[in-house]
Amino acid sequence: MISVNEVCKSFGKTQVIKSVSFTAQSGQITGFIGANGSGKTTTMRLISTILKPDSGSITVDGADVIREPAEARRRMGVLFGGDVSLYNRLTAWENILYFAKLQGMTEAQAAERIKVLSNLLDMERFLFRRVQGFSRGMRQKVAFAKSIVHDPSTILLDEPSTGLDIYSIRDVQDFILTCKDQGKTVLVSTHNMHEIERLCDNLVIISDGRIIRNGTKEAILAGEGTNDVMEMFFRVAEGSRNA
Amino acid sequence: MRDFKLVLKKELTDILRDKRSFIMLFVPVLLFPMMYILMGTQLNKDYTKNLPCIVDVEPGTADETLYRTLFEQTGVVDRKEVKESETEDLKNGDVYAVIRIKDGGITLLYNDASTKSAAVKDAMEKALNEIIRKSFEQNLQTRYNVSAASLQPFRLETVKLSDETQISGSSTMASIAPMMLVVIIMSSGVSVAIDVFTGEKERGTLEALMTTQVSRMSLLMAKFTATLCISLLGMILSILAYVISYMCSDAAKYMLGGADSGAKLGLSFVQTLELVAVCLTLSIFAVSLMTLIGLHAKSVKEAQSQMSLITLIPTLLAGLTLFMESADISLAAMWIPVFNSIVSIKMIFSGTASGTAICCTALSCLVYSGLMWIVSVKMLRSEKLLQG
Question: What is the torsional sign of CA B270, B368, B384, A21?
Answer without folding.
Answer: positive
